[in-house]
Amino acid sequence: MGGEKRGFKDLRPLSRELAGRFAAVRAASVALAAPLSDEDCSAQSMPDASPVKWHLAHMTWFFETFVLVPAANGYTPSNPLFRDLFNSYYNSVGAQFSRAQRGLLSRPSRESVSAWRSEIDTAMGALLEADDLPPATLALIELGLAHEEQHQELMLTDVKHLFSHNPLQPAYAGRWPLTTILPKPCGWIAYAGGLHEIGHAGGGFAFDNEGPAHRVWLEPFELATHPVNNGQWLGFIEDCGYQRPELWLAAGWDRVCSEGWSAPLYWRKRDGNWRCFTLHGDSPIDRHAPVAHVSFYEAEAFARWAGGRLPTEAEWEVAARQVEPVGNFADSQAFHPLAPGAHITAGRPEQMFGDVWEWTRSDFQPYPGYKPAAGAVGEYNGKFMVGQQVLRGGSCATAPGHIRASYRNFFPPDVRWQFSGLRLARDGKMMAASRPAVRQLAGLSDDPGALLAEGLDAEPPRIASGNFYDRLGSRLFEAITELPEYGLTRTETAIFTSNADAIAAEVRRRLGAGFQMVDLGAGNCQKAQALLPFLKPGRYVAVDISVDFLATALERVQISWPGEVAGLGMDFVRGFALPPELADRPTLYFYPGSSIGNFTPDEALRFLNQLRAVVADSAILIGVDMDKDPAVLEAAYDDSAGVTAAFNRNVLNSVNRQLGSDFRLEDWRHVARYDADATRIEMYLEATRTAAVRWPGGGRTFAAGDRIRTEISTKWTRDGLSGLLIGGGFANPRIWTDPELGFAVAVAG
Predict the structure, then answer these.
(1) What are the tens digits of pLDDT across the range 314-364?
(2) Half-sphere exposure in the Cβ direction for 135 (13 Å, CA)
(3) Is the dihedral of CA 97, 100, 103, 106 positive or negative?
(4) Domain spans of the chain?
(5) What single string gives the DSSP state of each residue in 568-600?
(6) CB under 8 Å to 681, separation ≥6 — which residues?
(7) Residue 312's closest CA among 432, 191, 433?
(8) Phi and psi for 698 in degrees, rounded to 5?
(9) Is the Cβ–Cβ distance between 609 and 728 less than 8 Å?
(10) 379 contacts 89 by C-beta, under 8 angstroms
């Protein structure tokens, strides 16, 4: 089993860590079932799906059968009949109740199953208090947690299939909090051929089918930047893709004919328009979101129609190893694939993790050297290695933290009820890859976990706004910038576009030719990239906290702009410096997006003076949001679609990953208010109930109504902006605004 790959010496200290994880994972299962009635939990819509009540019982059966019975001295099952009733497919354990008839199990009741879960949780809690549990037992517990997370996803997909048959079109959850945004066109990313290593090589949990790590030879290939979206699939439908046998594998065409497939599962045409059933009820098709609920046969036919192919699982994994395993998972509570952000990160595929499982062209087979685990758990994966196709990447229903680049999911090729989609591949050409160097400046960034703990222990508690921008948070923020209530980004862009020549002339008048442009918080470098042809700096220096992210962004800059580029990885808000070779010329600091508003006025002055001290011959190009009607400001930070609320609550996911805490998003609501005295918007997360939050070495209990401040955004007047810049050491500001005086851009220094 996968847990054994950690090594026995590494597993022994895990009992205390696993106790916390055990409680959290078990609670997550109960939370997923909470919106469902007893009747919802008992019904079964098809043989491949199971009632939610059965899932809750089977997950409990796993811990009783494989952990408590052999490891807990004196433990006796309270109901021996459950051993067969909730056994899924383990022949070594004993008989199993018919999978296709699980919906007939009106007894035990949901209440009885819940009581059994509580009984097992108590017994497991007592077991995990021991300091001397054998490594094999710890490994089984870890496997059981991963097993439970798999069934959490199945609960959602099975409920969706069940609800789709109900004419009432019931919704499992409220509408997902995103508006459609228009992404840039999809493209292709080239990968070099040669020997590559894939598979899990140790250093954390993995299922046994993910190893051993081994080398594979790949020819050069290209992978699409994004998964195939609904708009592309509509083109396939409109081109009679479901009526053209030449596009289909023989077995797939048989399915089309026998099942009457004409669109992805859950798609329905009404009044000439395509709609789909979701866990949030009936919804129009979002043309920009990844297509979901297509079989391998459909994915293969589409790839042929599109002039591409499906990637092999080795190709997919080689590409995925360059991407952090974060994305739209179940913790976002969107429970639906989401449209991508408006940017494309140069040299890296988007949405590799979350949203939809991606079919590959690979059969589910054992890796070289694979051996199933000893005992009954050896049946977990090995006996299914025939007649299945591999999928990769996770979906919007997958538990967060469950996925790795090496993770191998598998289903028969005709399955459609999972959140399964596809990404195109094609054969490539020999290539030589190069990446711009990005220097990490040491000593300027503190431990993020310690900083988070310090902020949460403060009075009042706070979370620094820099923690918003994980991968999902970045996508949510891009959605915010497209909302009608939030005009900041559009207005700033319009000012830059209308006044680019005048701004460039003002910068050159102050700094002369050959200056360098230092982009603070560069992110994807898009704002700077639009201005580089006008400003024509002698050097462009991008600064951001993420070294790896900068490298990919600078690849795109190098393609479009031929000048010298450099990158610095640092938390510049907490301490800014330049290495001597980058402090050798006049400098333009570029600080757009009203990010200066995240400081208090005193902090902003200190920050500007610090910039000025690093390079004496310097100027600043800055953008700030202006003070305006409080109702307008509050609407911009508490939009009607709920996007900002989702963005704010998602910061808790980032905190949980960095700090190891156990915040539950459902315990918190978004609050935004305008403070007239400070002329600023303040964003908070407010506890809706008592929330006891723990993290390594600490914790805090929040009462209902307690708030954690997550952001301040100071708003400015023209005079206030001038005073700030002059007080910060940057003289003679020249200011441009939009006609409504909603936003200002200034050059000073």
Answers:
(1) 999 999 998 889 899 999 889 999 988 755 556 689 999 999 999 999 999
(2) 12
(3) negative
(4) 2-164, 189-427, 445-484+632-713, 488-629+716-748
(5) EE--TTT-----GGGSSS-EEEEE-TTGGGGS-
(6) 633, 634, 636, 637, 672, 673, 674, 675, 711, 712, 713, 715
(7) 191
(8) -175, -170
(9) yes
(10) yes
- The arithmetic mean of pLDDT across residues 18-40, rounded, is 95
Q: Are 406 and 210 spatial neighbours (Cβ–Cβ below 8 Å)? A: yes
Cβ atoms of residues 162 and 49 within 8 Å: yes
The two structure tokens encoding residue 5: 């790959």
Amino acid in the structure at residue 395: S
CATH of region 488-629+716-748: 3.40.50.150
Structure tokens that stand for 288 in this block:
């920009």
173: Cα separation from own chain's centroid: 19
Q: What tokens were used for 358? A: 């991606």
Q: What is the pLDDT of residues 713-726, one digit of tens each?
A: 999 999 999 999 99
User: Which H/E stretch holds residue 542?
Assistant: strand 539-544
CA pair distance 125, 120, nearest whole angstrom: 8
Amino acid letter for position 585: R
Q: Which CATH class is domain 189-427?
A: alpha beta
Distance spanning both ends of the chain, measured CA to CA: 63
What digits encode the pLDDT tens for the residues 270-286? 988 999 999 999 999 98
Looking up tokens 């699409």 gives 224
For residue range 541-553, what is the model confidence (pLDDT) as tens digits?
A: 999 876 666 777 7
- Unique residue bearing structure tokens 């790959």: 5
Q: One-letter amino acid identity for 545? A: I
Question: Rounded CA gap, 419 and 403, in Å?
Answer: 15
Distance CA 582, CA 324 (A): 30
Q: How many residues does the chain have?
A: 749
Residue 334 carries which side chain, given as an amino acid letter?
A: A
Helix and strand totals (H; E) in the chain: 21, 25
